[in-house]
Amino acid sequence: MRELVEFLARALVEDPDSVEVAEVEENGDLVLEVTVGPDDLGRLIGKGGRVANAIRTVAKAASAGSDRRVLVEFIED
Amino acid sequence: MSTNGAVDLPDEPAGRVQAILERVVEELGVEARIEVDEGDEEIVGRIEGDDVGLLIGRRGQTIDAVQLLCYRAAFRGRQDRKRVVVDAAGYRERRREAIERQADRAAERSLKTGKEIELEPMSPTERRVVHQHLKDRAGVETFSEGEEPERCVIVAPLLRD
């Protein structure tokens, strides 16, 4: 799951090497914290959060069958 | 092919669409073939398999998300953009036909009752299908209301004097 989100994030930004994804366990949920440079944060979030939500939707589909929720958060480096 | 996130993507858009579809299909555990064709105005990625329901998702939300990500990743930093369409097992055509049937029913009801009929929430592309389908229909007009992702088309009777 972390690898998928990292792959998608790297595909969307200008500086793929700045992308880092950390896995955090929170109240039984899996939280993926995507850290990216300030210039690329907007590319990952998109207008009205459209791109961020698309990443979340794909992550959710990839976690179907698992009993853990997957949350994806975007953080500026 | 490496399985971590640090995979180098190809430079050209169609190759990038192919790489993203391959990765997503693999992660979703869907058994499928992928074919990407590039035309003058659009890049079409077709996914063919017996069990692509998970990839399509409820109301197509997963395939629409994949389509948006493919578009953004394919043309990142480029000006020479084209439309990107991602389809699975003929979903786009089936969905278009279903939307046109809904539009027809709404137009009939609107004319019969003289009331505005609200369709289910749709993506911008799907709303365009409704507007296009009903644009020459006598007696009704269409417009969109609400905020994404709940924005939907209203089919309304034209006021007569």
Topology of this structure?
The complex is a heterodimer of chains A (77) and B (161).
Chain A: H1 2-12, E1 20-26, E2 29-36, H2 38-45, H3 50-62, E3 70-76
Parallel strand pairs in A: 2-3
Antiparallel strand pairs in A: 1-2
Chain B: H1 13-27, E1 33-38, E2 42-48, H2 53-56, H3 61-74, E3 83-88, H4 91-113, E4 117-121, H5 124-134, E5 140-145, E6 152-157
Parallel strand pairs in B: 2-3
Antiparallel strand pairs in B: 1-2, 4-6, 5-6
Describe the fold and architecture.
- The complex is a heterodimer of chains A (77) and B (161).
- Helices cover 42% and strands 29% of the residues of chain A.
- Chain A is an alpha+beta fold and 77 residues long.
- Chain A has a single domain, classed as GMP Synthetase, Chain A, domain 3 (2-Layer Sandwich), CATH 3.30.300.20.
- In chain A, a hairpin with a 2-residue loop joins β1 and β2.
- Chain A is globular.
- Chain B has two domains: 13-89, GMP Synthetase, Chain A, domain 3, CATH 3.30.300.20; 93-157, Ribosomal Protein S8, Chain: A, domain 1.
- In chain B, β1 and β2 (42-48) form a beta hairpin.
- In chain B, the strands form two sheets. Chain B has a three-stranded mixed sheet with strand order 1-2-3.
- Chain B is α+β, with helices and mostly antiparallel strands.
- Chain B is elongated, with a radius of gyration of 19 Å.
- Classes of the chains: A alpha+beta (77), B alpha+beta (161).
